[in-house]
Write a structure and sequence with these properties.
It is a single chain. The protein has 155 residues and is α+β, with helices and mostly antiparallel strands. The chain has one domain. Helix content is 56%, strand content 17%. A four-stranded antiparallel beta sheet has the order 1-2-4-5. Strand 4 and strand 5 form a beta hairpin. Helix 1 crosses helix 3, helix 2 runs antiparallel to helix 3 and helix 3 packs antiparallel against helix 4. The longest helix is centred in the N-terminal third of the chain and has 24 residues. The radius of gyration is 17 Å and the shape is globular. The mean pLDDT is 89. InterPro entries: Peptidase_A8 (IPR001872). Pfam families: Peptidase_A8. It is an enzyme of class 3 (hydrolase). Pathway: Protein modification; lipoprotein biosynthesis (signal peptide cleavage). GO terms for molecular function: aspartic-type endopeptidase activity.
Length: 155
């Protein structure tokens, strides 16, 4: 469990640090090309979820975000995972969700800044962590590379 807490901390700081740096060094809606024709930085303050869903309904998004963190922690504690990759996957999910939750609680919006040309959304490191953690856990489960054993709740 200690390893998981460290991983969560490292990825949370990576997300938090990039958001704060981008928020202080980029102008809103000013496109800054990183790799011309492929990747740019475009600072926005996102009051919604992905693709603008629930835009402006910060309280509902906070409740959903907090609930998802509790579900992820419950699932992590409910099963014994014999894989470090599975621990990393859960850590990525928690750190990403926590990063976006704290933004919503503190600012009322999430700082997004990563923009790929021909991709319809602007996102942040927390979003990458959430997607990466989910895909990692899904691939480990589908390839049966992790052993999931139910924990007896009376132990």
């Amino acid at each position: 469990m200690t390893r998981v807490i460290w991983i969560i901390g490292v990825f949370f700081i990576l997300d938090w640090g990039t958001k704060r740096w981008m928020d202080t060094h980029l102008a809103m809606y000013q496109l800054t090309q990183v790799i011309p024709g492929w990747l740019s930085l475009d600072l926005i303050h996102n009051t919604g979820a992905s693709f603008g869903l629930l835009s402006g309904d910060t309280n509902l998004l906070i409740r959903i975000n907090f609930s998802m963190i509790l579900v992820i922690i419950y699932l992590y504690n409910r099963f014994r995972l014999n894989s470090r990759l599975a621990q990393i996957g859960f850590s990525l999910l928690i750190s990403g969700a926590l990063g976006n939750l704290i933004d919503r609680l503190y600012f009322g919006y999430v700082v997004d800044f990563i923009s790929f040309y021909h991709f319809p959304v602007i996102f942040n490191i927390a979003d990458v962590e959430i997607c990466g953690g989910f895909l990692l856990l899904l691939s480990l489960y589908l390839t049966k590379r992790i052993l999931i054993t139910k924990v007896n709740p009376f132990e």
